[in-house]
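Bumping my old thread because nobody answered last time. Still need a sequence for this structure:
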C-alpha cells in the first residue's frame, strides 16, 4: 500500500517527476494495521479499513479478491521450471520433491 506525491517543479533534469511511498501493513503482527494506517494518512486508513476486518485480519472480501487457486498444471509447471533452474546452477535433479 502506498501513495504517489508530486514533487515540486515536476520534470526535474534527472527525469524524475514524483515520489512513491510504499507501506506494508500485515495481519497477525501484534500491532493493529488499521491504527498504524490511521497514524500515517486518511487515504491509507480508508484502504486499511477496506482490506482488514474488524479484528485486524484480512476481510473475507479481500481474501476472495486476491485468491489464486493453484491447479495441478500450475504446480507441475512451477516444479519443472524450478528443477531446470536448480540443475542449471549445478545441483542434482530433484526426485519428485520441491
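Sorry it took so long. Here it is:
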Amino acid at each position: 500500500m502506498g501513495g504517489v506525491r508530486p514533487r515540486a517543479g515536476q520534470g526535474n533534469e534527472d527525469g524524475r517527476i514524483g515520489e512513491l511511498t510504499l507501506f506494508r501493513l500485515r495481519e497477525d503482527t501484534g500491532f493493529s494495521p488499521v491504527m498504524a494506517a490511521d497514524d500515517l494518512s486518511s487515504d491509507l486508513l480508508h484502504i486499511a479499513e477496506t482490506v482488514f476486518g474488524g479484528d485486524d485480519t484480512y476481510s473475507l472480501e479481500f481474501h476472495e479478491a486476491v485468491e489464486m487457486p493453484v491447479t495441478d498444471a500450475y504446480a507441475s509447471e512451477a516444479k519443472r521450471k524450478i528443477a531446470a533452474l536448480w540443475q542449471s546452477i549445478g545441483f542434482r535433479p530433484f526426485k519428485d520433491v520441491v
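The radius of gyration is 21 Å. Let me know if any region looks off to you.
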